[in-house]
Design goal:
It is built from six helices and no strands. The longest helix has 60 residues. It is elongated and about 105 Å long. The mean pLDDT is 87. The chain has 183 residues and is mainly α.
Length: 183
């Protein structure tokens, strides 16, 4: 038998994993006890076995009530099973609320991740612009390099203005929306 050994994780990856774990832990710590209970309930309900149990319960309910009527006994819930309908409707309402509550909690985490991703993308873009500016300055100061003007490098050396990018995206969406409406 061969034991599979894993390579050591580089420090920068350990830091990234620890940061993500801390983000998730903080999100879970901030959740109220009721939110945690609802999330656990949703996790327990959202399994294939639940569908089987619901089906067995409904079929069993109908079978018991039809058999009681057929045997001449008073059925707890005779056809067309109004009590079963009320129970299923009530459970459905609670399940919908539980799912929405859990989804809202999960959406908060997604929003945090998106915010972090956006902030890191902006920071990375600023760093890239600075690196390009430094390289361009180095190229201009190097006597072995030509002293020609590189317009692309100059443009890339300037960090993008997030508001300008947002305005451009909105303008493109408006143009796209008008194009769809005309067809």
């Amino acid at each position: 038998m061969t034991l599979k050994t894993t390579a050591p994780v580089p420090h920068h990856l350990e830091d990234a994993v620890a940061t993500i774990a801390a983000l998730h832990a903080a999100h879970n710590r901030e959740a109220h006890a009721l939110q945690k209970a609802v999330s656990r309930a949703t996790g327990g309900i959202a399994r294939p076995v639940t569908l089987i149990l619901i089906t067995v319960a409904i079929v069993g309910w109908i079978t018991v009530n039809l058999a009681s009527s057929a045997l001449g006994r008073a059925a707890l819930d005779p056809f067309p099973f109004p009590l079963l309908s009320a129970i299923v409707s009530t459970v459905g309402l609670y399940l919908a609320a539980i799912i929405l509550i859990t989804q809202l909690h999960d959406d908060e985490m997604v929003t945090r991740r998106e915010q972090i991703t956006l902030e890191l993308a902006i920071l990375s873009e600023q760093k890239s612009a600075k690196i390009i500016a430094l390289l361009e300055e180095y190229r201009r100061n190097d006597p072995n390099q030509g002293n020609h003007r590189d317009e692309v490098a100059e443009a890339l050396a300037k960090p993008a203005d997030a508001q300008v990018v947002l305005d451009a995206l909105r303008a493109a969406e408006k143009v796209e929306g008008k194009g769809e409406g005309a067809g």
